[in-house]
Design a protein that fits this description.
Number of helices: 9
Helix content: 25-40%
Radius of gyration: 21 Å
Distance between the termini: 38 Å
CATH topology of the largest domain: D-Maltodextrin-Binding Protein, domain 2
Number of domains: 2
CATH architecture of the largest domain: 3-Layer(aba) Sandwich
Structural class: alpha/beta
CATH superfamily of the largest domain: Periplasmic binding protein-like II
Largest sheet: 6 strands, mixed
Shape: elongated
Strand order of the largest sheet: 2-1-3-12-4-13
CATH class of the largest domain: Alpha Beta
Length: about 290
C-alpha cells in the first residue's frame, strides 16, 4: 500500500562548474527522474548546480530537518498530515488513476463504492453485470475488468489504496499492458479498465468519479485533481525551511515552469494548473 514511498533510492544528478551555486534537492523516487532534465538545462544556462537525490519521502524530510538538503519534494497520501507546521509547503504535482470505458458504454460516472463493487474482492457490494449498476439495456452484459500494467506507474497501488482501502482485487481482473488496454476497450464495449493516464483514443472515455454514492462526480482534469475533487490521486509537495526562502526561490521558479510541467505530463503525472503555477511565480517575484 504505497510502500514504495518509503524505499530509498539514491540517484546523483546534475553536473556544473565548481564555481556554480549548488542547490541540494531530495525528491520522491516516484518523480525524481522527471525533474532532472529541466533542472539541468536551467542550471547549465545560469551556472546553478542542482544536486537531485531520488529517495523516499520520509528520508527526504529527515534530510531537510538535519540541513543536509535545501528543498524536498515529497509524496503525501490521503489522510496523511502535510508538514506545514515545520516547513513552507506548496503543492507541486499529482499522480492519479483513471477509470476508462468504451465511448459507447452509457455509464459516465461512478462512485468509489461502485468501483469497489466492480474490482474489489472484499467489498460490501459485488457487481458482475452492468445491470447491477442500473444501466438500461445492458442488464445481462457481464462486466469485464482490466488493470493496465506499467512498471513506471503506481496507479494500481493508488487505486487499491483509494478505492479498496488496501484490499485485494478480484481474481477475475485481467492484467493487461498499459499500451494494449485501449485496444481491448475498443474491441469489447463491456470492459472497464484502470489506467495510469488519460485515454488517447476518442472512442475511449474517462469516467467521472464521486467520493460518495450520491455525491457530485468529477472528471480527471488538472483543476479537479489539484483541488481534490477527483478522488483517486496522490499529491506531491515541495517543502523547505522558511529561512531558506531566498536561497530556493530560483529552483521554485524552475519547478513551476512550463518546461517542467511538460516533463511531468509527458510521464503521466498531473502538473499544477497553469493559472496556479503562474500566480505562484508572480508571488515569488513580488516577494509574497
Amino acid at each position: 500500500m504505497l510502500s514504495r514511498l518509503l524505499l530509498p533510492l539514491l540517484v546523483a544528478a546534475a553536473v556544473a562548474p565548481a564555481s556554480a551555486k549548488q542547490v541540494r534537492i531530495a525528491a520522491s523516487d516516484l518523480l525524481a527522474d522527471f525533474i532532472v532534465e529541466p533542472l539541468q538545462a536551467y542550471g547549465e544556462e545560469h551556472s546553478v548546480e542542482f544536486k537531485v537525490d531520488s529517495i523516499g519521502s520520509l528520508p527526504a524530510l529527515e534530510r531537510l530537518r538535519s540541513d543536509e538538503i535545501d528543498l524536498a519534494i515529497i509524496a503525501v497520501p490521503k489522510d496523511t498530515d502535510v508538514p506545514r507546521d515545520e516547513f513552507q509547503v506548496f503543492p507541486f504535482a499529482y499522480d492519479f488513476a483513471v477509470i476508462a470505458v468504451n465511448q459507447s458504454n452509457p455509464i459516465n460516472e461512478i462512485s468509489l463504492a461502485g468501483l469497489g463493487g466492480i474490482f474489489g474482492s472484499d467489498e460490501e457490494s459485488n457487481y458482475t453485470t452492468w445491470g447491477d449498476l442500473g444501466l438500461s439495456g445492458w442488464g445481462s452484459r457481464s462486466i469485464k475488468t482490466l488493470a493496465g500494467q506499467n512498471d513506471k506507474s503506481i496507479s494500481l497501488e493508488l487505486f487499491k489504496f483509494s478505492v479498496l482501502r488496501g484490499g485485494q482485487m478480484k481474481t477475475t481482473v485481467a492484467s493487461v499492458k498499459d499500451s494494449e488496454v485501449e485496444g481491448v476497450l475498443l474491441s469489447d464495449a463491456a470492459s472497464i479498465a484502470i489506467l495510469p493516464r488519460l485515454p488517447k483514443s476518442e472512442k475511449v472515455k474517462a469516467l467521472m468519479i464521486s467520493s460518495e454514492v450520491d455525491g457530485p462526480a468529477f472528471s480527471p482534469t488538472d483543476d479537479n485533481v489539484h483541488y481534490g475533487d477527483y478522488p483517486i490521486r496522490l499529491a506531491f509537495y515541495v517543502a523547505y525551511k522558511k529561512r531558506d526562502e531566498e536561497r530556493v526561490k530560483e529552483v521554485l521558479r524552475v519547478l513551476f515552469s512550463d518546461e517542467l510541467a511538460a516533463s511531468l505530463r509527458d510521464n503521466n503525472l498531473v502538473a499544477l494548473p497553469d493559472t496556479v503555477r503562474r500566480k505562484w511565480t508572480i508571488d515569488l517575484d513580488l516577494g509574497e
